[in-house]
Design goal:
Length: about 475
């Protein structure tokens, strides 16, 4: 799964038993035990496969999962949290955005290229963090080179050039280095004293006594190219290797004026990038994407053929998308700008509401590639109450934290939570059932005035009661036409 080079990754994955995975998912997602069990077993099977000897290991393919259920019940969140838990490259795509070959739009191969890009970015961040201590040392030396003026020359003619060089490089004269909070300045030392002076500057830098100083540094300038502009507009095939084909037309540097802490951060990032072995990183990223990647295909029901819908027009395109998806899900090799990526062991999780179309409306070959099917349950009033209070990222906790920044304390009482859940379930039953997403709309409506007036309220505690919730929503609920737009 994750790269063996990441310290502790194997131990972490070994400790992720199916039960531990479900418990971790329970911290953020309410209910849906069957779906959690299915993805937990799928993730554990990936670790198990790594323990199998190579001849058999190559034969074991992931059992792809299809999640069936209405919107807002946790399908996407389950997949996203699973990937984060495993430290795996994760891509979410919508099947309705793809078109079959020959139509204008995104082709299905782009999801695999996105996965490669995600894996490279993940590893680059990991390598940067790993290289950061060394990079900071190098950055410190570069910054000291800028802060310290060149050693004075013995000839009088050289002094003029020295001062000119100092000014142009952004170096700070010794006499200017005394911190405003200090009564002492760093003495100007020449000859053997230059090393001592450098160490004095280093000490001041590390003690944070040069925070207010401004310096000019040269950093790499990478303006957005025309290729970057067009690469996100459905032209992936055209721009796939164009960057590599074009010569590097002199990566320019740009002189920037910034404070010492900003300069230190910029130089550290630049030095960390230099310490990364790009070839090794891309090779490992492709390996991680192949072995641990997860692609979540949402709205799979939108490309399913509808019964009685005929065989003309858009239905042809929908079936074409399914046929294009088939080789990717079955296992094929896709060219990416980082090299070929095999999808044989990528885990695919498809999801859809299937209100009109049914899973059996998918072409048989594609159905066969999703052997595990889990139907997610619609959310009850009790589930909505739990969603509002139990998860670590519960909405009530989020709003309390947000308004707490304005010194406004929200006292959301239990009966208010029950009332919000009741109204959300009522609106879902009257209109489109959008599941837990309805809670966002209700909460925003209830707390709209408080959010607006919070800066003027000062330090105060506001009790949120059931009566308060009803008062804020009563007018909207009575007006059926208005509620369709507002709630």
């Amino acid at each position: 799964m994750s790269s063996p080079s990441v310290p502790g990754s194997r131990a972490r994955l070994e400790s992720l038993t199916p039960r531990a995975i479900v418990e971790e998912l329970d911290r953020y997602i309410v209910g849906q035990k069957a779906a959690k069990r299915a993805v937990a077993v799928a993730l554990r099977n990936r670790w198990r496969r790594q323990q199998v000897e190579p001849p058999m290991r190559d034969e074991i393919t992931p059992k792809n999962i299809m999640l069936i259920g209405p919107t807002g019940v946790g399908k996407t969140e389950i997949a996203r949290r699973l990937a984060r838990l495993a430290g795996a490259p994760f891509v979410k795509v919508e099947a309705s955005k793809f078109t079959e070959v020959g139509y204008v739009g995104r082709d299905v191969d782009s999801m695999v290229r996105d996965l490669a890009e995600t894996a490279v970015q993940m590893l680059r961040e990991e390598e940067r963090e790993r290289a950061r201590p060394r990079a900071r040392e190098h950055a410190e030396e570069r910054l000291l080179d800028v802060l310290l003026p060149p050693a004075p020359r013995s000839r009088t003619s050289g002094s003029t050039s020295t001062s000119t060089s100092t000014a142009s490089s952004g170096a700070i004269p010794m006499s200017a280095i005394g911190d405003s909070t200090m009564n002492t300045t760093v003495p100007h030392m020449a000859g053997d004293g230059a090393g001592s002076t450098r160490e004095s500057f280093r000490r001041l830098l590390r003690e944070g006594k040069l925070q207010d100083r401004m310096v000019e540094i040269d950093t790499a300038d990478s303006p957005q190219s025309v290729i970057d502009v067009f690469s996100g507009t459905g032209m992936e095939e055209m721009v796939l290797n164009l960057k590599d084909m074009l010569p590097q037309m002199g990566r320019k540097t740009k002189r920037r004026r910034m404070s010492v802490p900003e300069a230190m951060e910029a130089l550290t990032e630049e030095e960390a990038a230099k310490l990364i072995d790009v070839d090794k990183l891309t090779k490992e990223a492709i390996r991680r994407a192949e072995e641990a990647g997860i692609i979540f295909i949402d709205e799979i029901d939108k490309v399913a053929g509808r019964e009685g819908g005929g065989h003309g027009g858009p239905d042809v395109s929908r079936e074409g998308v399914q046929r294009d998806l088939l080789p990717i899900v079955e296992g094929s090799t896709v060219s990416t700008k980082y090299g070929p990526l095999k999808t044989d062991h990528v885990l695919f999780i498809a999801a859809g509401a299937f209100h009109i179309a049914k899973p059996k409306d998918l072409i048989p070959e594609l159905q066969g590639r999703f052997p595990i099917r889990v139907e997610l349950e619609s959310l009850s009033d009790d589930d909505l109450v739990r969603i509002l209070t139990e998860p670590e990222n519960a909405l009530t906790k989020q709003y309390t934290a947000l308004l707490g920044t304005e010194k406004v304390t929200l006292d959301i009482q239990p009966e208010a939570v029950l009332e919000i859940a009741r109204i959300a379930a009522l609106v879902n039953s009257r209109m489109e059932n959008i599941g837990a997403r309805r809670l966002h709309t209700i909460m925003e409506r209830v707390l709209d005035d408080l959010a607006f007036e919070a800066p003027e309220l000062g330090q105060v505690t506001i009790p949120i009661t059931a009566a308060y919730v009803r008062e804020r929503l009563e007018g909207v609920l009575k007006d059926e036409d208005l509620s369709q737009y507002v709630l």
